Amino acid sequence: MIDEIVSHSRESVEDEIREHKKRLALLQKELAGYNAQLKPMLTMPHPDETQIAGIREKIAITERDITTVATRLDGLRSGKLTADDIRTACRKFDPLWDTLSNHEQWRMLSLLLERVEFDAKTETINITFAPGGIKTLNYQTAESGLREVSV
User: Fold this and answer.
1) End-to-end alpha-carbon separation of the chain, Å?
2) Higher pLDDT, 150 or 59
3) Model confidence, pTM
4) How far is it, in rounded angstroms, from Cα 68 to Cα 83?
5) Which ranges of 1-151 would DSSP assign to H, the alpha helix?
6) Which one, of 146, 142, 144, 138, lies nearest residue 90 by Cα?
7) Counts for the chain of helices (H) and strands (E), in that order
8) What is the reported pLDDT for 140?
9) Looking at per-residue confidence, does 70 or 126 come out higher?
């Protein structure tokens, strides 16, 4: 089961990386277009300052979006899930669960799970784990000083 979770997580992360790369390419193309629009305006004898300000604002927003997407890509690339990550999370999870309030349990599940789907026809449940959720759990519990217990 652990190998299946790792495999599914890697596939999910790779899909998300592909989508973010596409988004990044589109944003970079958009930014180049805005810069191409702005350049001739700056050499005009009487440029339309309102139009220049509008394009500069679009440039700033696009640059911010590029930074956000690039940061997310870096996180996805460095957050590859391993079988050891899952084992560590499981050892920490069991003793921790009963000590949590309902709100904290909900937060923990939302950290670990991206989606849970029930198919009534086949009576099956499909669980999609959140990429990076288990690593985040391991990091947060290590920060809080929670010890692992052996299973």
Assistant:
1) 16
2) 59
3) 0.56
4) 29
5) 2-42, 49-78, 83-97, 102-112, 133-144
6) 138
7) 5, 2
8) 60
9) 70
d(CA 29, CA 115) in angstroms, rounded, equals 33
Delineate the domains of the chain, giving CATH numbers in brackets: 2-78 (1.20.120), 83-144 (no CATH)
What is the mean pLDDT of the segment spanning 42-66? 94
The full DSSP string for 83-100 is HHHHHHHHHHHHHHHTTS
pLDDT in tens, 17-29: 899 999 999 999 9
Compute how many other C-beta atoms are within 10 angstroms of the C-beta atom of residue 144: 8
Q: Which two tokens stand for residue 118?
A: 């029930």
- Residue 77 contacts residue 17 (beta carbons within 8 Å): yes
Find the angle CA(125)-CA(128)-CA(133) to the nearest 5 degrees.
Answer: 140
Q: What is the pLDDT of residue 59?
A: 95
